[in-house]
What does this fold into?
Amino acid sequence: MGIIKTDKLVFEYIRRDDEGNVEGITRAVDEVDLDVKQGDFVAILGHNGSGKSTLAKHINAILYPTEGTVWVDGMDTSEDKNLWDVRQNAGMVFQNPDNQIIGQVVEEDVGFGPENMGVPTAEIWERVEESLKAVGMYEFRKHSPNKLSGGQKQRVSIAGVIAMHPKCIILDEPTAMLDPNGRKEVIRAVRALNLAEGITVLLITHYMEEIIHADKVFVMDKGKIAMEGAPKEIFSQVERLKELRLDVPQVTLLAHELQKSGMKIPDGILTTDELIDALI
Amino acid sequence: MLRDITLGQYYQADSVIHKLDPRAKLVATIAFIISLFIVNNALGYCVAAIFLAVVIKLSKVPFRFIVKGMKTIVFLLLITVVFNLFLTPGEALVSVWKITITKEGLRTAVLMAVRLIFLIIGSSVMTLTTTPNNLTDGMERLMRPLKIFKIPVHEVAMMMSIALRFIPVLLEETDKIMKAQIARGADFESGNLIKKAKSLVPLLVPLFISAFRRANDLAMAMEARCYRGGEHRTKMKPLKYKRCDGIAYLVLGCYLALCIGIRVVT
It folds into this structure.
């Protein structure tokens, strides 16, 4: 069993009218089977409303499955006694950088998780220093979060999660509210964590460029997993991606169009360099 | 323009008073306020004034900063003085038409004014030398015994510090909503007070909605980071009494004893 595993996971949102009668049931996540190996960089893609955020909230035990089971590091998330261990092992970074920073000073925010876990004071300081250094925000430790840019705030949030020493981190569209520079900063920090510290990463996004380096990609649509495979396998199916209303990176699209018009180019070109190599 | 607002009124300086434990400063402020009501004659107020002057000198906060805080209470001060001056019955001092100033009236008016001024200066010395963060920490620690009465001390302190964290965020948001509405022809400037107040309604509604949304997100983020109230929680920056805090308590004790002494003797 991998670090994160779901078995036939179903989650239903129940809509009620004013009297509390059930108006309708929406299946946000529909029989999803997921298995993520320790140390992998896994991306989940999907357009708005495809159920990817709902799926992410299950892994951190913020939502509980309607049917099926979720295991994090072998622990069933729906059991109360596992709750805090699950949350410590599967750290979560959310979309809005402003709404997840609790501290008034950067270092205090990073210390918030360890404080909650009851880590001794001296060790909190060690953890804060090490996590801020890991995301390259150490020199900002005395700053107020209000004065940081979006990308910097998200890196502080990531530091706050890794200070809890999780086995995996789930990033729920961490770059959706950032400018291109901030986006690059955050993705670079996440990749470095994955490569250097071996932390399993589950990145939820709708930006294709961010998943190029993933070990595995899942594409979600209407609560189900529509496609799964390595980035190259996913990107070679340009038509299918368009059907799922996802944008393909420009280079891949160009390669695909060239291929359609008869040029001999391999499938699944992801970067400009690859295309240049294929053309020359 | 809204972004430049400073929170509380903390004045950054490197002084003994700044370094004191927030608990010591809170206790001292309360003790000072009590002392103002213990003493009731000129000698007592002289002692209080000297004590206050020494503290201000030690805190290295420029006097004009402290006086700035007084502006807000000028009105209150005036009302107190006027009412006490004219409405206290007793031996007439000056009498013009129906207005009489009595000896007792003059005495209480001066006493109340001095008390109020000292009270405000005393507490602003505390807020000027303590960061809001430290202040909430100190309050949480001091009020811990109240837990016996099921008062959620930690939760209240957490709420206060989150509120402090979000004031600039919400101010920025207000600024944004205001600009968006001005761009669409809203008018926040002209008209009388009632009209101005009414024009704020379309500003407050989106602000409240977004504040609730933020609160919801924040609660989720806190839970995701294992927040479960004050139980089992350790502190990254625990409060520790140092030697200077001991000395401060000693000085405070002497001062209080002196005040009580003056009251008893005279």
